[in-house]
Predict the structure.
Amino acid sequence: MSMALGRATSGVRSLTREEAEARRALLDVTRYDIAVDMRGLFEGEVLESTSTITFRCHQPGAGTFVDCAAEVRRATLNGRELDLGTISEGRIPLPDLAAENVLVVSSAQPDTGSGAGILRTVDPSDKLVYVWTSFEADDARRAWACFDQPDLKAPHAFTVLAHESWTVTSNGAPTSVEEQADGGRLWTFPDTPSLSTYVVVVNAGPFHELREERGGHSLGLYCRQSLRQYLERDAAELFDVTAAGLAFFGEQFGQPFPQARYDQVFVPDMGGAMENWGCVTWSDSVLFRSPPTYGQRESVVDVLLHEMAHMWFGDLVTMQWWDDLWLNEAFASWASTWAAVNATAYTDGWASFLAGLKLAGYQVDMGPASHPIRGDVPGVEQAMANFDAITYVKGESVLKQLVAYVGEDAFVEGLRAYFRRHAWGNTRLADLMDAVGEASGRDLSGWTEAWFDRAGTDTLVLQGTQVLATAPAGGEPRPHHLEIGAFRRAAPEGGGLERIGTTTVETSGSRTAVEGLPEGADLYLLNDRDLTFAAVRTDEQSLGTMLGSAGDLPDPVSRALAVTTAWDMLMKGELSTDELLGCVLAVLRGERSPGVVEPFLRMALRAAEQWSPAVAVPAQLARLAEVAVGLAEDPDHRGPALRTLAAAASTSEHFTLLEAATADDNDLAWRVLARRAALGEYDPAAVEALLDRDPDPDARVRALGVTAARAEESAKAEVWAEIWEKRSIPAGSPLFGVAHSFWRPVQHELLLPWAHRYLDEVEGLGNGGGMLAVGSLMRGMMPTTADQAFVARARAMAQEPEQNPTVRAALLNGSDTLARVLRARG
Ligand SMILES: [Zn+2]
């Protein structure tokens, strides 16, 4: 999965680890035969299903329960009627099991509008209905009865009845599609391999479908009709990267993806993407409504390869329990960047990762929401709370460090052994570390404990010819395998920085001598090539060179390391916003690597508008606008440069330049209208005209983004109601766009009451059912301006004993960042 839809549910009980272990010890599931009736979703809200579960019990006479968080209409066990009155909290008791059992449960799920496992949506532009399912971690039980835990794997055979105008996609290719006498069509799918309940899927709707045969695989792409032009625009690259990824992973992992069919279904209003076996579902917000920038295309490739890596790591070999979910996600994230760099055109993937995503990992890790990568997960609910930047980003970084520590060849050899040994089974972290340890000849037990069981980020400092390492709270620093790049000015005045040497160091404890460090460098760059996860600090002379001349470094990873080190210093109060901007803007003036231009632009914009005192924001944005105007002259960077300019524009020259570019770019046009609205030039006629011109089904949301930017109480109130009361903004990027418009720190005085109102809304969320993507909503709408009272109240709310873990983590992390911002604003 990529990104989370953390949500709380009511009326159903979360499975505990002890319950899962007991049920696993008692049962083996032979197969699931699931008949789904989606005809009621064409005009109504109800999904019906009959789940037939064939399973063995190792202790005949014993009892257990099956999960079904839907309205159960009938249940029989071995032909006996089960008493529906015994059903409680989403569980059907199964007393007196035989050695061989057949359980048949018919159920109906009327809640198909909240996104809990199933979402039925109506496209606002053409009124067509689409339905998707997405079950991680334990939402399969909302669609049909099942033993909803990852280590009770079994083949699933689906039959799906759906309206005759609908296409159904599931984990494999349908074996038949038959017209029904009483209306609709019956789709029959073959047995899947032995799969966990959370990676099966059924989607339906009048999809637009594209197919290509590549490398022995039948590749499918699906989207809703209103987005077909965008899918067709991007299809060539999606097919290319899919084919390249399947070939690369098949080779590296030592076994090809074992079925012909590999589909990717782009669906409305989904917060991320999900690795359903052979049928990945994606949020269709990635089918960008204006030609995507390099960074946007790179992010799509990243998600594509991430979900694909899960076919092996997650689906083929699955974690025993959710306490290893981090490993699942960290691995897929690492494998995705690794494959992008080695098998696609996105060869700057590691630089992009460092300049962009990795900062989120550092940010969470330095605050009170940090936790060890590996955590205790006593119940499923806790697993979802751990879906954060520690899981994905720090986890990816630490696996990159592991690859550096044992060597890539040994790591890949270990992976092959792991997939070979455990195919179609379940594992724990130790199984992977054993395989990699054997392949590398290294005992990884101490390394594993140091990196996975301790929170926080070590700091590494080069002092003379020694690396000093410190761990948070006085702990023992971890072992770091890293490189130190030594750079010297080519000419005394100006000129680039030339690499005069690279030294590899493996640190041990708090003080490690460095052998062979070249003398006389102007800059020693710790953690060059970004092999480890650490805050790095350099000596005084190097610091001056790094801040003033980062743009002269010869490769994008080195430049990204310099800039992100400056960002880390800003976060920790060691550098002013002005100094950070000086560093990143100087780099941007000459930056040509597409992998880092966009993350650097985002960082500069964030610093200028969020990390500066309100009175200084216009001047800081003007500095950024000037750099963006320069970058826009380069055709390779024109798109992202103009988008940044649209956020920072302040002069009539800026708007003249932008207006010329908006004629054929609706996305940019919306951004310009929002910027004008923020500057007090709201133009309702221009909004109406653009609504008429823009075919995007989410155009209404973009218009709301323009309203959100206005410095008017009534405008803020209108948008607030859409977000919190009507819940009308699709999760993911549409929500983030509106939130960014809403929270304009330059409007600090106007926004302060709204920041407190945000906490009121969060308090009101409670743990009730039907909550739409609470995690996404909370993180998306976290204020970017507030005061100390907000920070104190958010921290107090986080400490409430009954607080939902997802809510707690979002409050802790968001308030920590705000506290740092307030300090930087002075
Ligand atoms: Zn994932």
Remarks:
- The first helix runs from residue 17 to 26.
- The chain has 28 helices and 28 strands.
